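Run folding on both entries below.
>entry_1
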Amino acid sequence: MSNRVRRLPRLLSALFAMALAPLAHAFDPFVVRDIRVEGIQRTEAGTVFGYLPVKVGERFTQEQATQAVRALFGTGFFRDVRIEVDRDVVVVVVDERPAIASIEFNGMTEFDTAGVTKSLREVGFAEARIFDRSLLERAEQELKRQYLSKGKYSVEIVSTVTPLERNRVGVTFDVFEGDVARIKAIKIIGAKTFPEDDLLGLFQQSTPGWMTWYTKADQYSRQKLQADIETLRSYYLNRGYLEFNVDTPQVTISPDRKDIFITLSISEGEPYRVSDVKMGGDLLGLDDDLRRLITVKPGEMFSAEKVNASSKAITDQLGNLGYAFANVNPNPVLNREKKEAELTFFVDPNRRVYVRRVNIGGNTRTRDVVVRREMRQYESAWYDARKIQLSKERVDRLGYFNDITVDTAPVTGSPDQVDVNVNVTEKPTGMISLGAGFSSTDKLVLSAGLSQDNIFGSGTTAGIEVNTSSTNRTISLSQTNPYFTADGVSRSTNIYYRTLEPLTINDGDYRIKTGGLGVTFGVPFSETDRVFFGGTVETNSIDLFQNSPGVYEDYVDTFGKTSNAFIGSVGWSNDQRDSGIAPTRGTYKRANAEASVLGDLRYYKLTYQHQYYWPLSRSLTLALNGQVDYGKGYSDKPYPLLKNMYAGGIGSVRGFEAGSLGPRDRKNNDSIGGAKRLIGNAELLLPFPGTQQDRTLRWFLFADVGQVYGDSQNIDFGSLRYSTGVGLSWQSPIGPLKVSIGQALNAKEGDKKAAFQFQIGTGF
């Protein structure tokens, strides 16, 4: 037999070549004098050598040649592999597959390029990888699948492969996205107990309507359809239909790929009542305590919602006792003749565990200690689900992070230990500003400032603010240390100088200059309660002019052009909101009392504010705010005009000019504020279109009520002003921004209205 290997025809497939290699390339064994590789362009020769089962000086056999061919084919780098023998020299001849040098997309607007590139990598198609036609087809199918999930059934994808130097290719996907397929009709077959229209009203998806241009509810989505089916299932299960069933949904598309038709076939079954409620398993001697958590009662119609809530309550209670992996399995046993269900909650507490470590991650700037000191779940302590949730809420209320996640991971090899992992996503907490702006109230505003809510990642707030507007010029230095002491006593220091001029809505002229230095301490009395006390030394001076309001002339007659005061304050706050940035549930309560105890002024002021956040659904939140302020003078002194409160505008009653409500000056009818104030606000917060996961950007519908009353006036509810409208809130990098368009509902003669208003730096 010749020492030269016989060549197979080029048209034989690679797989056939491997199968027949031992027969077609037969040669006598020999000692290898040299090894040569031919045909490589990108692949290193050493890579080929690594797959050869022989080295120079060793004996080479037919079996080893077959093994080498198979190994090299298995790499996927080559389209063809041959082993030839040339006078005791092994010649490996390869035909390389090209590598993917670049991947580009044309016409793709629905998806982010980085995200699509990542998904293609997961199916094996990425830059620097070997190009294969089958992988290209998989990439096209994956890209098309993503468009179908968005309801774009008319999408067309054309791929172009361009050869490049050094045996590489560039791949371009030309995407013709087309229009989103709209839901033309949804039918539910088999609904007998409840009207079909009522059931369809439960769905996220719907046929086109007057608001679907905004909600996109008429755009088909497979994920949303599955969610709607689960909603339908829950609706029936909550009403006792334990044997309810939904067949596989039938989804058809019109020939032009623009209309979707959905048909759901359901079997309702019969409703069941609960005949008895029992508990089984290992109850840890807590039978009575756990039984009280069950809200399902015998004789009631079976409700999956109540059953699941009871199971969760038991699981949470066991979690609070250290049983992090407790399972509660409700098991209904059906009596089909009586249409009754005997319900048993099987409890498996599993093992009790303690926390080995609390790990903080994602904080690139904020120090670990800032997050760790808010944790109420301690290391080497029993696991407590309630404390973990409280810890998450406390970290969220810091306001330093856009997102906080807390998860529990078992410790490998230690069944009684877990690690608690806290991962945060930081948000900008500092601002350097220098420039000009425009306020709907103060017109031109020139400002410069440096502020940092989390300076050097320490959790301390410090800032300098310079503001010049048409009515308010301020320079202020402030610093707050939330952990002035190790046990959480805070200290806030503020030194300021302000010059106040009349609002642009007033005609009278005056100048008020105020300087002060204040220190306030906050003492935590519980996880959510804090008591504040402090004092401020303040001096005020007033410059009057010929057209100054009469009340300012009266003030100067009583207190003089210059007045000094030492103002003491004490307050209390209770914060049970789930977030300090964009709350969706919980309450916030605040009470404060301040009084001038030394100096020229003699007054006291009481304030109480209550906020309530109620989640109506996963995306809707009802926010309520109420505030009452009451001020009074004593020691035969009137309530000082400089401490008057104002209403109107963002933060009080939108739709009216800022600070315009309440008493007016007898001389020129200017708004002068008052010593008593009532404010009420209601907002329905909704996610902004396309940003359902971004809780910092929301729009809202609002209704406001409020009024201000003079020192000698009684509170008259009949004089309250009302407004309603729509607005947008955004936690912008330079502070909370609110924009509103409001309509005053019961404006009286002389009231000053303002439909469009905006403000940066306001809260509720």
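>entry_2
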Amino acid sequence: MTTAAAGVTTWWWVDCASAGNGNGTAQSSPWNTLSSVNAHTFKAGDGLVFATGTSCRGQLALRGSGASGNPIVIGQWRSGHGSGKPILAGGGVTPATVYLHDNEYVTVEDLEVTNSGASAGDRAGILAYNDTGSTLHGITITANTVDNVNGYRWGYYGVNAGIAVDIDGGLANPGVYSGVTISDNAVWNVNRAGVWVGSLAENGAISARSTGVTISGNQMTDLGADGIVTRYTSGAQILNNVVYDAGSWSGGANSGSPSYYNPYPDGIWPVNSDNPVVQGNEVFGFVSQGAGDGDALDCDLHTTNCLMQDNYSHDNVDGLWMDCSGAGGRGEVFRYNISQNDATARNGIFNNGCGGSPTPAVYNNTVYIGSGSPKIDSANRANWGSGTAFTDNIIDNQGNGGFGTSARWDHTLFHGSGNRPADNTNAVVGDPRFAHPNGAGNGRGTAAAAYALSSGSAAIGTAVAIAGAPGRDFSGNSVCASPDIGAMQNLCGPAGQVNNPGFETGSLSPWTNLAGAGVVGDNAHTGSYAVRTGNVNSGVSQTVYGLASNRTYTLTGWVKSSNGSDAVYVGVKNYGGTETSIPATSSTYTRISVTFTTGSGSTSATIYCWKNGGSAASYCDDFSVS
């Protein structure tokens, strides 16, 4: 049975493979047509379930609404026809195959929905539409597959989308939705957009806002244009979605629409909205075949307090981010995002094509450009706003693209190309020492691994603290007291915390292998693991952060020598004072304590275990700084 079965009190059964049309009240007497379903009015607590492994042709136009805590559930039942999701095939029906017209408290899940006509038209897969002039509640669309919907590529989003929740833009006081969840759906081979929540009312024309909107965990590909669009919403949460290979739909040009025309797509973009959060998403392979825009992420017209963070964008034809909020927007924040090989054909990594923008906050982003000549920014100072500063970002440009006449760059790390913006303050020029530059693939985890900072990175500890920063990075790591430039922060914790102090993770990270050392599962002081050095010139090191300047600390470590005669050292350096180390030669574990005082302005130190020479390996374990 469908996963929401627990709250259902009355079941209605549909099996479109059944030879006869029953009364729908039992598995043994199912309806076998959508027209029979549409003739019935459902109520709170009803469950409408379709037989797996079957296909129903036409439109499901639901009659009736559920209640708060007691929705109408539309889903599947496990029949004898197979385990595949039941298919609702619209066959080109308008406006949608699953049509929730002025319904509320409805859950749609576990279905496959298609809507392919002989030619393109204004059509969607699943559409909830409110023209009541009042607030409707509780629309949940989850765990469905929506595919093969041949709407118009540049047509009106609300009826040219895989999944849409729409309000009537023609009303002076349109109704809105409160409580919309669109989660864990697979959307593919769809024109125009993957997911749309909004209204087509002219920019800034209405004050109405849908609230409680969450779009999360959806996977969408092979779209004609946009991935996710929210319009006239407040507080929308767009989280952990993946949009890829969009803008290049294989279904043909479909470049016009009788009712509407807008060839300006983006990957994910709120427009005419307040306080949207766009977080943890991935956009790649996006190709804009329209007249403009085309960026992976966009804070668009009349959007206020747009927060975009922890997103991963890569291998897109156009740029990473567009600030197009214009004169009607304010409060944009774009932070802790990672871009790899974006803007391969046009635009810049950062764009502002709308002009009149307020001052956005753009900080702690990591941008890697492997080749080519994309601009880093492609807007003039007037567009960005005279006070705009790009702060604590890493620009690793291995291509030959340059900078426009952008806003000021502050505490930015530049690496690679010799091109620098004319206006920069406190620039850091050096190697960020990414773990695997240009090595990220599909998935946010690959980006976190590729763009982690290695020991010796010029980004470590060289950022300026940003008021209102979240205190954690792209991967959720804590931001150090002395923050790092870029989206990934070097591992740190409470002041002086040694990470992986006893090597109990079974690996060295975040310790640096200075030569010939490795974690072993024997000879531990405590626990199961220790570090084994090589015979000569071998050891490990780690930089600890969050120390206070001009303060005395004690480094403690346990060491032993295999032969009881070779010296193994515990030491500290790079703390604003003279490097200090103490050796031990015992064949049993010996506790070594090294006291050091940080210098003025020094808030970190490099600790190490090291063996200079001899004929046998040594062991190190259980480090701390106090």
